[in-house]
Predict the 3D structure of the following.
Amino acid sequence: MSAVAISRHWDEGGRLLAAVDHGPMPRFSRRELLAEIEASGLAGRGGAGFPTAVKLNAVARAPGRVVVANGTEGEPASAKDKVLLEANPHLVLDGAVIAAAIVGASEAVVAIGRADRRVLKRLLHAVAKRSDHIDVRIETVPDRFVTGEESALVHSLEGGPAKPTLRKPYERGILVQNVETLANVGLIARYGAGWFRERGTPEEPGTALVTVLGAVRRPGVVEVELGTPFRDVLQRVGGLTALPQALLVGGYFGTWVRANDAIDLPLANAALKPLGAALGARTIVVLPHDACGLSESARVARYLATESAGQCGPCVFGLPAMADALERTDVGRLRRLAPQVAGRGACAHPTGATRFVASAVDVFADEIERHRRGRCRGANHPPLLPVGASPDWR
Amino acid sequence: MQLRLNPILCDGYGHCAELLPELVELDEWGYPIVAREPLVRRLEPAARRAVKMCPRLALSLEKSP
C-alpha cells in the first residue's frame, strides 16, 4: 500500500532482487540446515534484527507447527518486501519451506497486505508452479501499521482482529519470519554460510534491501551490502536532488539523524548506535533543506496515534497526547509524556512512536523555535512522508 | 516473584495502586506503572491481594526470569 512511486534497482552482484534460477531445492538434514543458518549470522530483516537461528531453535522446541512468511509491510514508507515478493517469490517460498523443515512444521503461510494485489497475483502464480512436500498458502490481511507485528499477524490469520496479543507466536510453535529473512534462508541453504558472509560486515553479514525515499532522484528499493556508506546507498538511487537536512533511519519506529552526522557512516547498527539510531527495516527518508521536519513528524505522529490497536491505555491516550504536544511544539509536555508511554504496551508500537517523536524534537530543535515565532521553513514544500489509510481491523 | 501486568486487559481501575502503592503508581490517565524489580517477601501478601482484587484480572505474580 505504499503511497510512493517505487523503482527497483539491482546490479550484477545482487542476490535478492536479480532474477536468477537457483535450480531445485537442496537436500539437507534439519541439523545441517540449522547449523548453516547459525554460522551465517543471519539476523531478522523485518526490523527487530533478532538472530534467525535463535528463533528457529525456539520454535523447533515448541514443537513447530506452522511457518508464517511475513510480507505485510504495513509501514507506508517501506516497499522492500513488496518489491522482493514481486521480483523473486520463489526465493521467499524456498526459504519458508526450508524453515518449515528446520522447525518441523507441516504448513507455510505467506501473509501479505490486502491492497497488494500485484504481489498476490505473483505469489499465486508461483505457488501453482511448485510441488512442495508441505502445504503452502497465501493469505491477505488488513493493511494496518501494526498488522506486521508477529502476534497481531497470527491473531488476524486465526480469524481475529489484526491486533497484538500478549502470548507470542513462537511459544505456540508458530514461526513468523519476515520475507526477506526467508529469502536469505533459501540462499544460505543452497550456497552456505561462508558464501553469505562474503558480503556485509563480520558483525552484520549479508546484503539487505533498503527503501530510500525523499530527496533522491529515483526513490525506490535497492539491495546493498550491510556496511555500505549511506552516501553510496543514496548514489545507488540516483543521488541527491537537494541539500539534505536530516535522514529518517528505520522508518516510523526509527530515528531522525542530522544528515551531516550520518551520511558518511556505514549502513550498520554498530555505526548508528552512538547516534541513538538503528537500521530497523532499513527505510531511509532524505529530508531536503527546504522541508519542515517538525510538520512531517507531527503528521506521522498523528498517523501512528490513529494506528494504535486501541488495546493498551498508555498507547490509546499517550499517542494522541504526543501528537498534540508535537503540533503545539510543547517540548516540556513531550518530555513528561515519554516515560508514561514508552515500553508500556503489549507490543512495540508506543515505544517506537516515542522514539520517533523524541528524535524529531532533538534534530528539529531550531525548527521548533521557528514555529514558535510563527514561521515554518517548509510552508511551500509538499508533504514528504507517506501515511497510509486506516481500514478495518479484520 | 515478580508482578506482571497485562496492558491489554488493564482498564485502569487503579485498585492495584491503592493496595500496593510501594510498587504501583498511576500515570496521568490512571493506568498502573508497575515496578520491574523482584518482589521482596515483605510485600508478597499485599501483592497477592492486588492480584486477586483486580477487576480485569490483568495483574499476575510470576517467577522472576
Remarks:
- The interface with chain B takes residues 164-166, 311-314, 317-318, 340, 344-346 of chain A (CB under 8 Å).
